[in-house]
Design a protein that fits this description.
By secondary structure, this protein is of the alpha/beta class. It folds into 2 domains: about 15-185, Rossmann fold (3-Layer(aba) Sandwich), CATH 3.40.50; about 205-430, NAD(P)-binding Rossmann-like Domain (Rossmann fold, 3-Layer(aba) Sandwich), CATH 3.40.50. Helices cover about 40% and strands about 20% of the residues. It has a 7-stranded parallel β-sheet, sandwiched between helices. It has a 6-stranded parallel β-sheet with strand order 2-1-3-4-5-6, sandwiched between helices. Helix 7 (about 210-225) crosses helix 15, helix 9 packs parallel to helix 10 and helix 10 (about 295-320) runs parallel beside helix 12 (about 345-365). About 45% of the residues are buried. It holds the Pfam family adh_short_C2. InterPro entries: NAD(P)-bd_dom_sf, Sc_DH/Rdtase_CS, SDR_fam. GO terms for molecular function: oxidoreductase activity, acting on the CH-OH group of donors, NAD or NADP as acceptor.
């Protein structure tokens, strides 16, 4: 007989279901075995089916008797062929009839046309309607550890460059995306090309790498073959050195808000033939209501979380220290999207990251560089263990998955944006929050 903890009993009485055990990537359980492909129109998109074949999945096209015998681990909905308003009923019917076949930790991915001037009002309306649909569905299936996400793409990219879909599709179907739900991945970069890196080890800079999320990112990138240079401040030297020794990386002591930080990284880059990846993870919180906040708390938070990112990138780009085919990934936050009382400085800085990433992406694409942001929600770190008990528990339960994420969940998404799989995605912010129930 299983006994519930006092915490579980309390949250059960409040209407929160018991969290499902999430399936995370362990090197062997990446992609699902069975994927059911459904279409919102009679016309099938052959490119999507061919991509799934490349992933070596057991594909079940529309309804099949085998569904009775096999549990479906993933559901791909092709919504790229809008016909008329009957498509709204079709999307209901497809999910209504097939949801029962999905296993726990299932992945649901919708592929649809992005809103664009070349489409009709009706088509663009349908695309936006799918956003609300997918987020709501994600909150319904989250109790089983399942996720729902959308990939938006233009008609031309589906037919002319279907491989641009392959990377985000494989990520969202995999166990690497276990804490990513209710998100939009838009294939929007036309100019980015994959650079050949034969016999060349890529070099990554990760700021704030001594512990927590930064250390998890460094470890993940090292496992992907990067030479990782971890950056942190002098008081974190021992922790940073220990983290880098574990992954055969290099420690570099630097205050990112220092006026000379960009120049110091430029000189470091000369020793490594430039950088292939910059991960701006360093950040602080200095929480007080704005009426009680000291001025230096405001400025320090903005300097480290936002302005240092802009200054360092500007210096590295001006000095050609980021190689062609390079990637920049910035850490934002859920609080930069939804706001948080007592965090006007932090939320301002993290919302600024989102605006910066979106604004500079077109300029960077001309240099064959992508930039994206990752916005974590409640992630289990040393910082969250110091939170008051009830506040910590509420933070864990206020997601569709009914639990907090782990640093590796953020690291997996950073690694995706750093990879060739994300070459056609730039200027975007993806939340790694298990889809917060309240807020944006």
């Amino acid at each position: 007989m299983k006994f519930m903890s006092v915490t579980d009993k309390v949250f059960s009485l409040l209407g929160f279901p018991k969290p499902a055990l999430l399936k995370r990537y362990n090197g062997h359980n990446n992609l699902p075995n069975n994927v059911l492909v459904l279409n919102t129109a009679k016309k099938n998109n052959k490119n999507i089916n061919q991509l799934l074949t490349k992933l070596r999945l057991n594909i079940i096209i529309n309804k099949d008797d085998r569904l009775i015998e096999k549990s479906v681990e993933s559901l791909v909905i092709d919504a790229t062929n809008y016909q008329d308003e009957n498509n709204y009923h079709t999307i209901y019917k497809l999910i209504h009839e097939n949801l029962k076949y999905l296993s726990t930790n299932a992945r649901i991915v919708l592929i649809a046309k992005s809103s664009q001037k070349s489409l009709s009002v009706e088509e663009n309306t349908f695309s936006q309607a799918l956003v609300g649909f997918s987020k709501s569905l994600a909150k319904e299936v989250g109790r089983k550890g399942s996720t729902v996400n959308i990939i938006f793409t233009s008609t031309n990219k589906i037919t002319e460059n279907p491989n641009a879909l392959l990377g985000p599709l494989s990520f969202l179907l995999s166990a690497k995306s276990t804490f990513v739900s209710g998100q939009i991945f838009s294939i929007n970069s036309n100019n980015i090309k994959i650079e050949a890196t034969i016999n060349k080890q890529k070099t990554a800079i990760v700021t704030g790498a001594a512990q927590g999320i930064g250390a998890a990112i460094a470890e993940k990138l090292s496992s992907e073959g990067y030479l990782v240079i971890g950056v942190d401040i002098e008081p974190m030297k021992a922790a940073l050195t220990s983290t880098m020794e574990k992954i055969q990386g290099k420690a570099f002591i630097l205050d990112v808000s220092d006026n000379s930080a960009g120049e110091q990284l430029v000189q470091l880059g000369k020793k490594h033939n430039g950088f292939d990846l910059i991960v701006h993870n360093a950040g602080i919180t200095r929480d007080k209501t704005i009426g009680n906040m000291p001025e230096h708390w405001w400025q320090q938070t903005l300097n480290i979380n936002l302005l240092s990112v802009m200054h360092i990138n500007k210096e590295l780009l001006n000095r050609n220290s980021i190689n062609s085919g390079g990637r920049i990934v910035c850490l934002s936050s859920m609080n930069g999207i939804a706001g948080q009382g007592g965090q006007t400085n932090y939320a301002c800085s993290k919302a600024g990251i989102i605006g910066y990433v979106s604004s500079i992406s077109a300029e960077l694409s001309t240099r064959n560089i992508t930039i994206n942001a990752v916005a974590p929600g409640f992630i289990e770190t040393k910082m969250t263990t110091k939170m008051p008990f009830m506040l910590r528990e509420m933070g864990r339960r206020m997601s569709a998955l009914n639990q907090g994420g782990l640093p590796i969940d953020v690291a997996e998404t950073v690694a995706f944006f750093a990879s060739d799989n994300a070459y056609a995605i730039s200027g975007q912010t993806v939340r790694v929050c298990g889809l917060n129930i309240i807020g944006a």
